[in-house]
Amino acid sequence: MAGPLRGLRRLPALLCGPPWQAPPKPRPLLLLGSWEGWALETPQVRTLATKKAKAKGKGQVRVNINTSLVEDIINLEEVNEEMNSVVKTLQENFNKTLSIRTNPGALDSITVTTKDGKFPLNQLAQISQHSAQLLVVNMSSFPESTAAAVKAIQQSGMNLNPEADGLLIRVPVPKITREHRENLVTVAKQLTHKAKESLRKVRTGAVNQTKKAKSTTSEDTIRLIEKQIQQMTEDATAEMEKLLAAKTKELLA
């Protein structure tokens, strides 16, 4: 008898009745021997969508695969966790580095490139707030990395102009101007772009892993899994866009 996954087959998609009827109840779209697996497709509701809404894919059919049925092919729960982790990291970066008023914590995660590798600034130095207008970075623990730290702060995109004074780096806090706010929005967009690149890598890895099962799995099942992965990617991307919109509104308020 063929392996259980070889028995996977997709039943016809659910059709939606007239707009005045209640949508049909979910039915199993995947069958596995005597086991029923739910891959639900949300019925489309007839609406008057604008061209703009259609362009964004509004009203597309969504799938929800029972992950236990395809765990021998790919662990979709792990893929979802990886994508959520990318979104969470973006939010943390927003909170740490994008503030109207620069504080010592904003410098913590600045990456410093040294001959021994890349390190967060707070692992190489002690960062303190000397006054409301001045931050001080003490490089006495790693004096050889002072120049690299100055360069990293300059290139952080936070509109900072550090000044080296021996083993101390003085970082004047920029005035809260419209230009400063717009610079922070630019940094937010750059962070979001990098996060989307990380998300695409997760998606590509998941799709490639799924395709490895083509020799033992039906094409319909492969397509359904790929659709689920794409749907998860789009959901994570939409969440990133929400975070960016909220942060932009906060910075420009």
Into which percent range does the helicity of residues fall? Answer: 40-55%
Taking the alpha carbons of the first and last residues, their distance comes to 65 Å
What is the CATH first-level class name of the domain at 67-98 and 177-252? Answer: Mainly Alpha
Order of helices and strands: EEEEHEHEEHEEHEEHH
H/I helix tally: 6
CATH-scheme architecture of the domain at 67-98 and 177-252:
Orthogonal Bundle
Unreliable segments of 5+ consecutive residues: 1-54
Enumerate the strands of the largest sheet in spatial order, edge to edge or round the barrel.
Answer: 8-9-11-10
How much strand?
A: 15-25%
CATH fold-type name of the domain at 67-98 and 177-252: Topoisomerase I, Chain A, domain 4
Give the full name of the CATH homologous superfamily of the domain at 67-98 and 177-252: Ribosome-recycling factor
Can you tell me the overall shape?
elongated
State mean pLDDT (0 to 100 scale): 79
Oligomer: single chain
E-strand count: 11
Largest sheet: 4 strands, antiparallel
The rounded Rg comes to 25 Å
**Classification by helices and strands:** alpha+beta
Main features:
single chain, 253 residues, alpha+beta, Topoisomerase I, Chain A, domain 4, Gyrase A, domain 2, 6 helices, disordered N terminus
Short précis:
It is built from six helices and eleven strands.
Explain this structure.
InterPro entries: Ribosome_recyc_fac, Ribosome_recyc_fac_dom, RRF_sf. Residues 90-252 form the Ribosome recycling factor domain. The protein is α+β, with helices and mostly antiparallel strands. Among the domains are: 67-98 and 177-252, Topoisomerase I, Chain A, domain 4; 104-172, Gyrase A, domain 2 (2-Layer Sandwich). Helix content is 43%, strand content 16%. It contains six helices and eleven strands. It has helices spanning 51-55, 76-97, 121-124, 146-154, 178-211, 219-252, and strands spanning 9-10, 30-32, 35-37, 39-41, 63-65, 111-114, 117-120, 126-131, 134-138, 163-165, 168-172. The strands form four sheets. A four-stranded antiparallel beta sheet has the order 8-9-11-10. A three-stranded antiparallel beta sheet has the order 1-2-3, with no helix packed on it. It has a two-stranded antiparallel ribbon with strand order 4-5. Strand 8 (126-131) and strand 9 (134-138) form a beta hairpin.
